[in-house]
Design a protein that fits this description.
Strand content: 5-15%
CATH architecture: 3-Layer(aba) Sandwich
Largest sheet: 6 strands, mixed
Order of helices and strands: EHEHEHHEHEEHHHHH
Number of domains: 1
Number of strands: 6
Structural class: alpha/beta
CATH class: Alpha Beta
Strand order of the largest sheet: 3-2-1-4-6-5
Distance between the termini: 18 Å
Number of helices: 10
Shape: globular
Helix content: 40-55%
Length: 244
Amino acid sequence: MHYRMLHHGDRVLLGLSGGKDSLSLLHILRHIQRRAPIDFSIAAVTVDPMVPGFDPSPLADYLKRLGVPFHHVREDIVGLADEHMSGDSYCSFCSRLKRGLIYRVAREEGYNVLALAQHLDDLAESFMMSAFHGGKLNTMKAHYLNDAGDVRIIRPLVDVRESALVDFARSNRLPVIDDNCPACFAMPTQREHFKQLLAAEERSNGQLFHSLKSAMAPLVADGMERAVAHAEAHAAPLPADRQS
């Protein structure tokens, strides 16, 4: 993995929404865990925003059957947004609040790595939104250290197309919670607009996402060297029989 995301002794906390992307990443990480020359542990956390139509309770039994520790955090995010949000979109407010809750779980439970399931299509949409509406060239990073310097964030799916994850989830019959963000799906979003714009452009330009991936590469890799240096400085030593 060219972003050098996983290291011996890592304790990885996966942000699990119940959607196809995060469930697919769960199984990809477990596959890597069984075959990698290093040892690392995996747990999952779901933030329940307590909105009608979203029921993450089946995830608890599913994770139990897989033997993956599961943390379920309930928070009335819509209520907090109505009370505190000002000059911001609900999605942005929700994202920041969810990330703060997940960091709290990571710190309280001793996880040093947070795994998120954004894929190449997500990165392309963010890139377009930032350029069109923010006047900046920016997108999500693959591997970086948070501002507090205590949790590394990894996005193992940054090179993966969303269509591949749809196929993976269907072929493996993953228990996808289709409506995993009802408040967002209730109204059109900027992200959905750019998803449709990119889909229309790809129909006439089959190389679109290959080109976008190349254009975004320096942005996606930003912060990786600092994260890797931190990981190597804090990694558990490999057993003698695994050292090359």
